[in-house]
Amino acid sequence: MSLIAEMPAVLDAELIRADFPILQQEVNGHPLVYLDNAASTQKPRAVLDALAGYYARDNANVHRGVHTLSVRATEAFELARGKVAALFGIADPAELIWTRGTTEAINLVAWSWGLANLRAGDEVLLSVMEHHSNLVPWQMLAQRTGAKLRFLDIDDQQRLDLSNLDELLTERTKLVSIVHVSNALGTINPVREIAARAHAVGAVVLVDGAQSAPHLPVDVPSLGCDFYAFSGHKMCAPTGIGGLWGRRDLLEAMPPFHGGGDMIEWVDLERSTYAMLPHKFEAGTPNVAGAVGLGAAAEYLGGIGRDAILAHERHLLGYCIERLGEIPDLEILGPRDLDERSGVVSFTLADIHPHDLATILDGEGVAIRAGHHCTQPLMKRLGVGSTARASFYLYNTVEDVDKLVDALHRARTLFGY
After folding, report:
1. Which residues pair with 59 in a beta bridge?
2. Which helix (H) or strand (E) holds 11?
3. How far apart are CA 209 and CA 73, in angstroms?
4. Does 3 have pLDDT greater than 90?
5. What's the CA gap between 124 and 128, in Å, rounded?
6. Dihedrals φ, ψ of 240, to 5°?
7. Is 374 an annotated catalytic residue?
8. What is the distance between the alpha carbons of residues 209 and 178, in angstroms, rounded to a whole number?
9. pTM higher than 0.85
10. Active-site residue identified among 225, 236, 320, 374
């Protein structure tokens, strides 16, 4: 047995697993080993109960009604906003805008802040490791405004190469939009340093927190960014809910993203005035149940402790990298230093296509991801078409890693290695 595996557990993952009903099943005749957490996480009973309780007792439209159910729904909706704000160290919940997730949050900034502030010749700085959701909106905006996109490269360990950052940051740089944790490599980027250097030239900074919000003890104000986007379904909450935090002065100056009900102060036939934050950016009937579920997830994760979650994932990461090192012809991508990466392990195995690997592993009850992970430019930069990816969360165990490794050995045998 590995020395890493024998280290004292930071949290009781077996006890935590009991909170997740979906994990108590077999897939293809084997106990489920769920290692696709970077794509979407499972939901604890506390979240499922919050959703069921809302629909069973409080379901009504918010902000518009004076009847009891509407009042209760509104209270639950706004209480959830406060819970999520507290989890991320956000002092003013009104600076937290509900969105459908990270993708909508980034699009909100691109079309509201971007259209109002970018002109031909301005520059937006991104990186080659961005998820398509933090790339395509800026491509679309550049085509519309005439702004130019520039990119940070990666080094030989798939970390951001900041050696030419000062050359890329100029008086033309209006926005830096950077991923906090790479969903394809697990690389943790130094967003605080990047933000400080970007602000020195007057640029605004957006951080894509889709992979950091669930796994790191994020205190948003301390990151030094101006916007922070995240998704609920990657942190034990339902799909279709997430958020955007923004500096109040920026949000107040930005025009609405969508028009409709609830985001208005007054509507006449020819013109309208808009509501105060956060409602200016929340047109129409919101995902009330999703917000309630996200609030419950924030309470659940906060109760366990995000430092403990990080330590647990890092323990699994070290053990996984050690065990995968036993498999011939397997190449792991991402930084070698565990302190520079999150609980994501992307790899290739000989010339076996990652989709074939994922299919074989599914037959063993092991769920991983295979493909380009919505990072096609990064795959091109790495010289691969796709990778297999295992990703951990608080309910995974060293036994899950052992089952992954055993299944990979069987895949090698099936392909004649």
Report:
1. none
2. none
3. 28
4. no
5. 13
6. 80, 15
7. yes
8. 9
9. yes
10. 374
